[in-house]
Amino acid sequence: MPCKLLNLCEYETHKLVRIQSVRLGSLKWTFNGVILMFICIMMLWNKEYQEHDYVVSSVTAKVKGVALTSLPDVGDIVWDVVDYSGPSQGKNSFFVVTNVIVTKKQRQGKCPETHDNRTSKIIVGIVCHVTRTIIQMLLSLSGVQTGACVKFDVTRKTCEVSAWCPIETKKKPPKPALLASAENFTVLIKNNIRFPNFNFMRRNILPEMTESYLKRCQFNRRTEPSCPIFRLGDIVKEAKENFSEMAVEGGVIGIQIKWDCNLDGFLRNCLPKYSFRRLDEKESNRTLYPGLNFRFARYQTENGVEERTLFKAFGIRFDVMVFGKAGKFSIIQLIIFIGSTLSYYTLVSVIQPFLFNLFQMQN
């Protein structure tokens, strides 16, 4: 049946011209070779022939070390792991006390509120009635307001509170830090990992590490990069911080464990790499509450009355973060990569005519 719509019945084809030229042929195959080499290099460099899976891990840490401190009005105190570890800091974290403020022999009763210039202007010479009590409660949380105005010292007055007395008065931690020797404590970090898709499991205590080796080894970037035992001072130094300075107010250090695993045959390699960095803002003038601290107390009974010694503990929290990826050869991934990179050869048909014309003009 004849076509009346001629435009729809047209068919086009490209005319192929074969040119016998050693120079042009060499240029063509050189250009194709460069593209092929680029594709192969990218495939090997990025391991595009592999299927990948991401790590699932668990972390435990065991700190060792003992310190002796001489605290004002308290005397010598020995700190072991139970004392300086503090409360649980959450998953994959551990805490070490490095400095303390001690308030000794507190008993429950009534006593003057800690003097503060902000509040003294309000209440000097005035009875702490209900309105003033509300204002004071907004400014301090030292205890429950009684509504009375009492002497703080010879020249100043403040509100009376029901609290553990005497109230903690020191605001700034001692310098240098009282537990600066924590720099020499060590921590054993045990990290178990798994790549579910490959059913592959490993831990950072490698099979070749014996018990005698673990007793003497200590992490060093150059000589012992795989040892799972770390000196706290070295961790802080690796994070480019000074332990003595950081110990005064405390802070947060991140311990990063990276697993980059190749699970292919003779190329098999799966070792942890450690890196360290500070996670909190260290500049006191740039953050309202610098460092890290918490309070705890030791209780005793004297003459039938319960007493406590209050400790405001400053310290360093170490957060262990695990990252990882494993790769293994997959014929499907290889086919997908080859198919996606064939489009690079369209560059040949686009660029070759330009190069040939340029080459002919120069000749």
Coarse structural class = alpha+beta
The succession of helices and strands, N to C, reads HEEEEHEHHEEEEHEHHEEEEHH
Strand count, sense and closure of the main sheet? Answer: 8 strands, mixed
CATH superfamily of the domain at 52-113 and 167-195 and 206-257 and 272-323: atp-gated p2x4 ion channel domain
Helix content: 25-40%
Number of helices: 9
GO cellular component, one term: plasma membrane
GO molecular function, one term: ATP binding
Family: Belongs to the P2X receptor family.
Membrane topology: Multi-pass membrane protein
Give your account of this protein's structure.
- The chain has 363 residues and is of the alpha+beta class.
- It has a domain at 52-113 and 167-195 and 206-257 and 272-323: Sandwich (atp-gated p2x4 ion channel fold), CATH 2.60.490.
- It has nine helices and 14 strands.
- The strands form three sheets. Strands 1, 5, 6, 7, 11, 12, 13 and 14 form an eight-stranded mixed β-sheet that branches.
- Strand 6 and strand 7 (157-165) form a beta hairpin.
- Helix 1 (22-45) runs antiparallel to helix 9 (346-362).
- The longest helix is centred in the first third of the chain and has 24 residues, at 22-45.
- It is elongated, with a radius of gyration of 35 Å.
- Mean pLDDT is 82; it is low at 117-125.
